[in-house]
Amino acid sequence: MKLSESALFMIRRQAARIKATGNFYAKRLEGIEPGDIRTKADFEKLPFSEKADLRDAYPLGLAAVPEEQIVRIHSSSGTTGTPVIIPYTQKDVDDWAELFRRCYEIAGVTNRDRIHITPGYGLWTAGIGFQLGAEKLGAMTIPMGPGNTEKQLQFMRDMKSTVLCATSSYALLLAEEIAKRGIRDEICLKKGVIGSERWGEKMRTRIASELGVELYDIYGLTEIYGPGIAINCEHNTGMHYFDDYLYFEIIDPKTGKVLPDGELGELVITTLQKEGAPLIRYRTHDLTRIVPDDVPCPCGRKYPRIDVILGRTDDMVKVKGVNIFPGQIDDILREVEGASSEYQVFIDHEEGRDRITVFVETALPADARPGFEAALKDTFKSRINVGILPKAVSIGDLPRSEKKSTRIFDYRY
Ligand code: ZN
Prior knowledge:
There is one protein chain. The protein is of the alpha/beta class. It is built from 11 helices and 20 strands. The protein has helices at 5-21, 24-28, 40-44, 51-56, 90-106, 126-137, 149-158, 168-181, 201-211, 326-335, 369-384, and strands at 70-76, 84-89, 114-117, 140-143, 163-166, 191-195, 214-221, 226-232, 239-241, 246-251, 265-271, 282-288, 305-306, 311-312, 317-319, 322-324, 339-350, 353-362, 389-394, 408-410. Helix 8 links the parallel strand 5 (163-166) and strand 6. The two termini are 33 Å apart. Bound molecules: zinc ion. The site of zinc ion has 7 residues, from loops.
């Protein structure tokens, strides 16, 4: 991704602001003068920041402005105890609303729409982000928050909501309830703006067809404003993001090396305008790629694009020169007739070469399994260009785990 002169100027300003705080990142910038960040190469020498750094700054160590300028905090829940607190100035709040307004606009939402918001309001950034962006757009908002399906459906019907904002799982639940009650004709929804977690094509198709809506993936994280920093347009060529507020890089999660556009890796974000809690080179651990701009999006927008989020980089392994991650394996298994969603992958080193053994549960009888294994092998080869050793096992043979990441075992080291 190109780093423009104006972005570099804003980065110098952010670095100066951070240095004045004396916080963790200021310490990391010791010996670096903001004025010395003149080129993309200078910028790429700056250290990364991580969620753990933010946690260590609890409660208000991230604040880069005097307290009287902070108007709000948000918090991202960690899986490990200490939360992360992000302070916002009024400009940060306004900027976020502007980014979110653009997202709605890219999704074709207008001030004639009625926006039904089901993500939660409170410490986390979801509900209120959807709300402020919609108000800035001038649309009527229906601030439902989560839960109480009965009331959701009543308001959706009576208020004639046209846009549903939800997580994919809640959108699916509502779609199923609408189908169950046979009230689809009374629902006026046209679009769904769905928080970007990884969700399979199957789920997407079901939500879209049961609700009769077009779906848009919206991306964001509390550490960087919140949801509303990227969204796909109707051409589905990836999610447009706002390079006047944010600089995106993709790095190799193992080496930290910046990767060329088009290559899959970890998304790293630098805020260009944030005042309350500016972040430089923040590692998101989200796996995606920058969509090369040699083929512009047919919508004509100049905003660059990233791919939909394909998973977490923590779950990725590199084998035979190819990055493999659980989400990709889910997709491959969906293509193979007879494959269940349960699998395990073992990677080891045999006679100087990496070997990938893939166990997949299937209900197929023994005589059908050789054909099934051959199909698995072919599909891995054609989809991600790696040779595997396929092993069909019976349903229930593999241990069950909540976490997808515990399905890939790397025994090479
Ligand atoms: Zn577009």
